[in-house]
Every structure is written in C-alpha cells, then in structure tokens.
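Bug #77: duplicate submission created two jobs. Keeping one. Sequence:
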Amino acid sequence: MFSEELAKYDWDETTAQIMAMTAADVERALGREHLDDRDFMALISPAAAPYLEQMARRSRAITEQRFGKTISMFIPLYITNSCTNSCVYCGFNRHNKIKRVILTPEEIEQECKAIKKLGPFENLLIVTGENPLLAGTDYIEKALQVCRPYFSNLTIEVMPLSAEDYERLTHSGLNGVICFQETYHRERYKVYHPAGMKSNFEWRVNGFDRMGQAGVHKIGMGVLIGLEDWRTDVTMMARHLSYLHKNYWRTKYSVNFPRMRPSESGYQPNVVMSDRELAQATFAFRIFDPDVDISYSTREEHSFRNNMATLGVTTMSAGSHTEPGGYATHVNSLEQFAISDATSPERVAADLRALGREPVWKDWDRIFDEA
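Kept job's structure:
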C-alpha cells in the first residue's frame, strides 16, 4: 500500500530539497527524456521560475505529441451534500447549518436530461458528500444505473470505498474514480479533517491502491492548493503517481491541482498559489509524465483556462454547478464551493476552437464495457 511507500519520505526534508534546487538542477531536468522525482522537484522549485517559457514550450510539444490538439470535456453532477465529515475548508462540513439534499433516482434523471440540453456532454462526473449510511455504495450504484443511458463515460468522486465495492460499481457503468488526497502531510491532515471517515489518513491515501486492485479504468488524483506548501504536496503526488504506474500499469491516470475557492465554511487558505505557479506545476507534471491527463475545473478563470488549454491541459469542465440538483431540481441548494468560470459550454467550446483546439465530448464508449 502507498502509505508504506509514503513513510519513506520526510515532509520537511522534501521541502528543503526543493528549496535547495539550483538553475543547474533545472537545466539538467529539462535536458533529460525520462525524469525522476528529483528532476520533478527541480521543475517546481523557485529556481525554475526563470525557465517558465522553456517549460511551456516543452509541455506544449509533449502534449500535442501524446494527445494531439484535443480537450476532453466533462461536467459534474452533485447528487448530495449530505456529509458526516468535518473538513474545515468545505461547504459540506456537517456542522454547517444548511439544507441537506439527497437526490432521488427520479431527480437524478431530471438532472441528466437538463445537462444534455446544455451541450453534447458524454463524460459525467458524479459527486457526493461522504455519508455511507444515507448515500453509500447502494445509492451510488443506483445513480450510476440511472445516468448510464444518458452518458457514455461515468466517473465518481465519492467517499473512498473497498476494492470489492469499486469492482462492483464497474459492473454498473463505472469507468473512473477521482479522489483528492487534499494534502499528503500526515500530521497536518488531521487538523483539516478532525472527524468523520475522512479523518483516517491511511484509508484515504490507500484508496488508490484499492481502485487499482479493482481494475478501475481511470484514476484521478489531486491535492487541494491552499492547505500546505504546494510544492511539497505536488511532489508527494508525483511520487504517488509513479508508484501507481508501477503497480497498476493498465490503469490510466489524471491529476488536478484545485486552488481553494470561497465556500460556506469561510476558511481562508494558508497558501496562495499564483497563476504562474499553477502553470509551473502543470508544465512540470506534463514533462514528468507525458501520458497523464491534466484536468482544470471551473475553479479557474476562463481566460487562464484558455491560455493553459494550448500548453498542457487536456481535460476541462464547463457549465458546472457544485450544488446538488443545481441544473434542474434544487437550484437554490448550497454549492460546495464558488466557481470562477460560469461561461456556457457552447462558449467554452467556441473559444477552444478559436485557439486551434478541438473539444472532445466523447472519448469512451459503453461498448468497451462489453468487450
């Protein structure tokens, strides 16, 4: 399990290694075809800031070589904000006095129909809070079954499950799983997640192993930018990604680095990442792992997403609502966080085409599930 591998790395020592990187280390990394974690640390270090344009050019070249000039489009569907966790930064925190919504199968279907009117989406991300009693595996499985006739590719972002439950859901239309570790800092993790299932660091970080063991087609991972030092967190995620590639090599992977957005919690970030720093992290991951899918959500501003669409990003959301039932059935319920890009899917697609990119609405087909 990755928790054992992670124990080999000291957080403070990793931070010190990153900060000690020099221009020579950056140049060495940029001169190599296959990078190790030390090279990655060089590329996300302060020493790499003067090399951003060079990194951008290489990131663009690698992306076009591996992915062409395509951007895969997806949309999230939040089906419940009911949650038993106490994450201090999240609008769904169980202590927040908000109306809790758990969509019925009929309401989920209405949401699917409303989404299809927004654009030709075929990639749907189903999102829940973490409430195993009221919205556990049975509920998630039913949601997948309801959504399957409307979408070719179904991904979930839910509580970490057992390998058996992940495998079970693959038979109900599940293609991918996204899970945000939030931070790899074991000691500080408990501060941000004081109670609930999510407070168990090992259960969460080892969830990716269970996804791999279950044969999930695609695994998405990410850290929440705003909690701990972003350079150290993304380095730990790069190490995690390398571990997963080695152990579950048949699985595809994606990464995301969401920057903290305003939410009902009122939590203020400890760390602020600039646009240039987010670009740096994006380029570093693309150069480090040419085949990884890099995803940007509507947390990011429209103009910034457009710029990054030509430089390394390969997947984007559009038209997103982060409140359960936000497309049709519960339009005034609480959103998990405020989005930055409210641009319509049609406009997002038009802007991408103007940039020489082709929006791809469907990159997986249910026929593959029958092969």
